[in-house]
């Protein structure tokens, strides 16, 4: 429900149609947006944490069984990303508890969580995918990787980078813009 679901009423004094907003329906809509934004960022944080934890453990076990400095370094680097994501999550959840449980407070929380997912996707592209790809390029140069491996790894990192960037620009930023426009409409006098 946005402003499209306004109720038409007849103003008897002026003899013209007026529009009023069903406040409870609007509040429900804002609550759904807040819940959706919270679920979205939670899924991303938990998914990245589980995937990276699993990969770090697998690489560490592989390095223990067949000592390889690259596996130890990769395991440590990926383990550090898990710590960072958990810290990022803790900080976000702490901030979530500061919002009022009013319609505007919930809208502010939805905006805040959308900003967090935009920041998170930027961090994934610039602070995770790019450094990991550079790290793997150095590893492949050191190991003398085959052309097939270069194409697969290079293509995978390029695809991941482009998909994260596309998602940020086509989904998250427009969502933030819509939420800010709704807040502007609600706070206009």
Shape: elongated
List SSEs in N-to-C order: EEHHHH
Low confidence ranges: 1-11
Mean pLDDT score, rounded?
A: 84
Structural class by sheet pairing and helices: mainly alpha
Adjacency order of strands in the biggest sheet: 1-2
Strand content: 5-15%
Radius of gyration: 23 Å
Major beta-sheet overview: 2 strands, antiparallel
Tell me the span between the first and last alpha carbons.
20 Å
How many beta strands in the DSSP annotation?
2
What count of helical segments does DSSP give? 4
Fraction of helical residues: over 70%
Map the helices and strands.
Blueprint: E1 7-11, E2 16-20, H1 23-65, H2 69-96, H3 103-143, H4 147-187
Antiparallel strand pairs: 1-2
Helix pairs in contact: 1-2, 1-3, 2-3, 3-4
Description:
The protein has 189 residues and is mainly alpha-helical. It has 4 helices and 2 strands; from the N terminus they run E-E-H-H-H-H. Strand 1 and strand 2 form a beta hairpin. The longest helix is centred in the first third of the chain and has 43 residues, at 23-65.
């Amino acid at each position: 429900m946005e402003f499209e679901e306004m109720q038409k009423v007849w103003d008897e004094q002026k003899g013209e149609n007026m529009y009023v907003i069903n406040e409870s329906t609007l509040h429900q809509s804002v609550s759904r947006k807040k819940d959706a934004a919270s679920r979205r960022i939670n899924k991303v944080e938990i998914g990245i944490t589980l995937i990276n934890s699993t990969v770090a453990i697998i690489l560490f076990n592989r390095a223990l069984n067949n000592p390889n400095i690259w596996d130890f370094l990769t395991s440590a680097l990926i383990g550090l990303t898990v710590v960072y994501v958990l810290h990022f999550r803790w900080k976000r959840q702490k901030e979530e508890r500061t919002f009022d449980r009013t319609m505007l407070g919930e809208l502010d929380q939805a905006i805040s969580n959308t900003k967090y997912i935009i920041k998170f996707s930027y961090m994934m592209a610039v602070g995770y995918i790019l450094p990991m790809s550079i790290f793997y390029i150095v590893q492949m140069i050191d190991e003398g990787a085959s052309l097939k491996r270069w194409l697969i790894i290079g293509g995978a990192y390029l695809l991941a980078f482009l998909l994260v960037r596309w998602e940020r620009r086509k989904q998250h930023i427009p969502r933030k813009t819509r939420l800010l426009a709704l807040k502007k409409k609600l706070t206009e006098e």
